[in-house]
UniProtKB/TrEMBL annotation:
One of its GO terms (molecular function) is ATP binding. Coiled coil: none annotated. InterPro entries: tRNAsynth_Ia_anticodon-bd (IPR009080). It comes from marine sediment metagenome. GO terms for biological process: tRNA aminoacylation for protein translation. This is Leucine--tRNA ligase.
Length: 71
């Protein structure tokens, strides 16, 4: 029995915009906020909510969620 085979190397991170769930991003386990933000902006479901908007605040709980406040 080798427990290394049970560890996952990717996780699903929910992305909220103004407190509402807008999508899930599959990302490496130890991704940094800026890299996750780049992935979110490239995702079609999430990008449409960011179009022509300014990101006022970014809240990232590592391995849990990303919340963006836009105006």
């Amino acid at each position: 029995f080798d427990s290394n085979y049970l560890q996952e190397d990717r996780i699903e991170i929910p992305v909220q915009i103004n407190g509402k769930l807008r999508g899930l991003i599959s990302a490496p386990l130890n991704i940094q906020m800026e890299d996750l933000l780049d992935l979110a902006q490239k995702d079609d479901k999430i990008a449409k909510y960011l179009l022509d908007k300014e990101i006022k605040k970014k809240i990232y709980v590592p391995k849990k969620m990303l919340n963006l406040v836009v105006i």
